[in-house]
Amino acid sequence: MAREKPPGLINWKSVKFYCLTGSKLSVSPLRPFLLAALLLATPATAQDQPNLTIYTYDAFAADWGPGPLLKSGFEASCGCTVTFVAVNSSIAALRRVQLEGEATKADIVLGLDTSFAAGARATGLFAVHGLDLSGLALPVDWADPDFVPFDYGWFAFVYNRETLPSPPASFEALAGVDGLKIIIEDPRADTPGLGLVLWVKAAYGEHAAEIWTALAPHIVTVTQSWSAAYSLFLAGEADMVLSYTTSPSYHLIAEGDRRFAAARFREGHYLQVEIAAVLASSPHPDLARKFLAYLVSPEGQATIPTTNWMFPVNPKVTLPQGFATPLTPEATLLIDPTTVEANQRAWIGEMLDAIQ
After folding, report:
1. Helices of type H across 53-144
2. What is the pTM of this model?
3. Cα separation of 196 and 171, whole Å?
4. If pLDDT is split at 50, 70 and 90, which confidence band does 88 have?
């Protein structure tokens, strides 16, 4: 079948404009003005629309992540195109922006967490968001002028109930199980990896190095991203993987699989708050701020629980049946971002020295 011309396209060479002069038709001298009017009335094409570029981690932008839903939802009213640029971790997204400097095409970096907030701010790359976040609900108070929180969760070791019916309930217990294998993420490359370093430090303080030494024989591999670590775990390469208390919710709700659970540790669990920020060099700063406002709106937040499998920050969102419940304040561990920035290199070094 011959392809038809798309509607709305006109062959201008074949168009003539006529007007009545008495009983005759003649070519109108108004043709240039009518042409201009028709051109102005033609709807804007995608090429005419601004492109909002967002750097984020691969799982967020994946087909099964929140990225596609947020893209379609925001594009429905923004008169723009949203483009997610995915790298293997949010830390890699920040590093890319740092390398590109003011020449970057990015408008937003999305997916860093509180552990990197102070360091990210120190780069001078980010602008004040100017949003009213007083209606959001998080386990901690939030009044940051640059970073907008969009979800939160607690780190945990996830396991399979069938293969590990009696999971350890502390780091010390984990280290004491002969032959137990775990997979963790690199703290230099991925936020969960750094989260684990901070979890151990918050729980054990000056004895953290001893815990790492005890854990070392159990670490099968240290991956560059959460996605890689979790995939290896699901492939049966380890008994436990560093993930989140909410990870089993995915298996239960999306797959109907009740085998997976998150081990609850007596020391408590370290909190992660994921954040997004507008770049000071953004070509579209107003549009970027509108996207962040949409991200924390009830509509935007409704995508989070069953795509990113984290807790939403907007209290108007109802969690689906079977979703994990938030931990109590007594079980929450968190180190001030400024303290993290001042000490993270030393703490990461402490961990690497112990496990290598």
Report:
1. 58-61, 67-78, 90-100, 114-122
2. 0.84
3. 11
4. confident
Q: What is the 3-state secondary structure (H, E, C) of the chain?
A: CCCCCCCCCCCHHHCCCEEEECCEEEECCCHHHHHHHHHHHCCCCHHHCCEEEEEEEHHHHCCCCCHHHHHHHHHHHHCCEEEEEEECCHHHHHHHHHHHHHHCCCCEEEEEEHHHHHHHHHCCCECCCCCCCCCCCCCCCCCCCCCEEEEEEEEEEEEECCCCCCCCCCHHHHHCCCCCCEEEECCCCCHHHHHHHHHHHHHHHHHHHHHHHHHHHHEEEEECCHHHHHHHHHCCCCCEEEEECCHHHHHHHHHCCCCEEEECCCCCEEEEEEEEEEECCCCCHHHHHHHHHHHCCHHHHCCCCCCCCCEECCCCCCCCCCCCCCCCHHHEECCCHHHHHHHHHHHHHHHHHHHC
Give yes or no for a contact between 150 and 276, defined as CB atoms under 8 angstroms apart. yes
Q: Classify residue 270 as exposed, middle or buried by CB count within 10 Å of its CB (0-12, 13-18, 19+).
A: buried
Give the separation between CA 149 and CA 66, rounded to whole angstroms: 15
What is the Cα–Cα distance from 151 to 111, expressed in whole angstroms?
A: 9
Q: Could you tell me which of 160, 120, 177, 166 has the C-alpha nearest to residue 144?
A: 120
Alpha-carbon distance of 354 to 350, in angstroms, equals 6
The CA distances from residue 119 to 91, 171, 177, 345, in Å, are 11, 28, 37, 11
Exposed, middle or buried, 138 (CB in 10 Å: 0-12/13-18/19+)?
A: middle
Q: Tens digit of pLDDT for each residue in 240-281?
A: 999 999 999 999 999 999 999 999 999 999 999 999 999 999
What are 158-170's pLDDT values in tens digits? 999 999 999 999 9
Which residues make Cβ contacts (< 8 Å) with residue 145, sequence separation at least 6? 128, 129
The CA R_g of the chain, rounded to the nearest whole Å, is 26
Q: Name which of 30, 168, 122 is nearest 344 in CA terms.
A: 122
